[in-house]
Amino acid sequence: MRRLPPVLLEDGCPRELISLIRTILAACKEISFRVGQGALSGVLGSTLDENIQGETQKKLDVLTNQLLKDILLESGYVKAIASEEEDYTVAGNPDASYIVAFDPLDGSSNTDINSLVGTIFSIMRAPENSDAADERIFMQPGKNQVAAGYVLYGPSTVLALTTGKGTRFFTLDKTHGTFLLTEDFAKVPEETSEFAINASNQRHWQPAMQNYINDLLAGETGPRARNFNMRWIAAMVGDVHRVLCRGGLFTYPTDTKDPNKPNKLRLLYEANPMAMLIEQAGGIASTGTERIMDIQPDAIHQRVAVILGSKNEVETCLNYHK
Ligand code: AFP
User: Fold this and answer.
1) DSSP-derived secondary structure for 203-232
2) Which residue from 303, 212, 213 is spatially nearest to 264, judged by alpha carbons?
3) CA of 303 relative to ligand 1 center, distance in Å
4) Cβ of 295: how many Cβ atoms within 10 Å?
């Protein structure tokens, strides 16, 4: 089976970028081990702290963030990092070419119930002659990403990775500590009868999403004339993995539940990398009104609405938004 570095070399990936990806994966192997230890290593449960976004931090949020941050900054391959768990960006090697945004442990509330969690990352080039301490170096649209991926810590540890030449899956061989290519060029089926949304927010959605979901729920006697199935893992990384594997529509739409927080998912380290993986597998990723990867960010923790997945179903959903 092919190993990760040769696959990326064949794609013509710059050596520095490959080294950076391998650095992220070194941290992810450690995270995979820690998550797998669960209650044995005393890392479950919450801290007493909140992050800048007002969310209670899990012990594993803090630990995984520290692991990724330390290994990335020590590697010398990154000019700066942005993390869900860091209030501000952190400067690294001023001469490095790349910047990395990451969610160290997406779906961290799942850790306490031994369910799916994952690390999401997005890599971009730092602008020429930029200042490593200037957070504006992250204010680039997702279409500038040179690589994006996630590592899903499930029954097996799976890496989904794109460097702009398709989306591939690698599985961690825990005996040898190596990520091995297990699926070349994943393709999201264009048609689907499966969707993922937190239905408990239904009364807070905008009319377009209300109408779309009502028509799915109406099943074969409704306007769609067929039955749909619903799944919700409460970790975007798990839901997107399912969509990449067998198709589906995943959405976390705008809602009016909290007027100060109309959107939930973060653009830089959740929506953008997932959008790149989905598009590279033939799917669509939109906010409902625009392509996610075209959005010009104005803050590192900016949130956006997300509708992504199987091409035909996302297009149908977008038609309700016109
Ligand atoms: P964390 O990044 O704080 O772990 O949150 C996970 C998440 O942002 C995303 O991965 C899920 O899709 C979503 O939250 C689940 O939210 P609900 O609480 O509405 O189920």
Assistant:
1) GGB-HHHHHHHHHHHTGGGSTT-S--EE--
2) 303
3) 12
4) 19
What are the structural domains, with CATH classification, of the chain?
15-183 (3.30.540.10), 194-320 (3.40.190.80)
CA–CA distance, 3 with 25 (Å, rounded to integer): 13
Reported as a single tens digit per residue, the pLDDT across 231-280 is: 999 999 999 999 999 999 999 999 999 999 999 999 999 999 999 999 99
- Give the helix/strand (H/E) hosting 241: helix 236-246
Atom number, ligand 1, closest to the C-alpha of residue 107: 4
- Say how far apart CA 117 and CA 31 lie, in whole Å: 11
> Does any ligand 1 atom lie closer than 6 A to the CB of residue 240?
no
Ligand 1 neighbourhood includes 198 CB (under 6 angstroms): yes
Q: Which residues contact 4 (CB under 8 A, 6 or more apart)?
A: 21, 22, 25, 159, 161, 170, 178, 179, 180, 181
Q: Would the pLDDT of 48 be above 70?
A: no
Q: For residue 19, what are the β-bridge partners?
A: none
User: Is the pLDDT at 164 greater than 90, yes or no?
Assistant: yes
Closest atom of ligand 1 to CA, residue 239: 12
Measured in Å, residue 82 CA sits from the centre of ligand 1 at: 18
Partners of residue 291 on adjacent β-strands: 286
In whole angstroms, how far apart are CA 150 and each of 31, 103, 105, 117, 302?
A: 12, 9, 10, 10, 19
The pTM of the full predicted model, rounded to 2 decimals, is 0.96
E strand map for 126-255: 145-153, 157-162, 167-173, 178-183, 194-196, 229-230, 249-252
Alpha carbon of residue 122 to chain centroid: 8
